[in-house]
User: Fold this.
Amino acid sequence: MPFVTIFAHCDAQGRLVEASEPVARLQAACGGTIPGTLAIPALAELLAQARVFGLKLARPVQAQDGTEQIRAWAEIEPHGEAGVTPNDPNDTDEGPNHLQNAPVLEDVRVAASSLLVAGSLDIGASETFRPYELRFYASPVCDDSGSGEGAVPIAGSVELLSHDAEGFEVLLPADIAPGTTITATVTRLESGDSSEFSACAVVGFACGDVNQSGSITAPDALTTLRTAVGTAQCDPCLCDINREGGVTTTDALLILKASVGQAVSLECSPCAA
Assistant:
């Protein structure tokens, strides 16, 4: 089957000189810490973008150093109809990159000036405390495929995951507005296998921001109190802040404390998609 080459080419000033489709628009591909190099997150994004367009990695990423520039590329092989490769139980399927499963984003919400992301990764049955690097991206809207795109890299996190502990929860140093689309990729660090983009998730309001104003205030506590006594309604994913399965006066009190700056723990269940 014929191969095509996908690449991004940066000059010594970090400018994108040329890039093959579908990544020609990824100006963010340039930006390594050494002038003229590609940032590692950008390489993962480049390959993930390729897969969204129905392509699979056929060979590992390679980099060729020059005097003032670097070219990074990967040969990718069309695999029939374009589409997203579904995750499989225990990640046993085989193919390029061992068809690494993508993360599943279960709850993404504002947390003060940070972004809280909770999710899981279906990994092999024998995996025990293996390092996986998660990388997160923001986009205005989700791709038509339901996965990606990764318009703006946000941050990454290395998590130790086991088959019996596949969940993760990370707090990213990013001020992202509710309604923004978030996707992720993952790389199994021991093998270098990288996933496609995850399915999209939309950033929700912070736990305790009952009135969805963008911050936790006394009116949020009042709405929660009214819900507790049956005179108002509130989504439990915003006002059941201690995950007891119902909205109570205790929730209202904790939200009130948070609104005046007291250090309290607010932990809500994921909102329905």
Remarks:
- The chain has three domains: 4-78, 95-202, 207-268.
- The mean pLDDT is 77.
- The two ends are 40 Å apart (CA to CA).
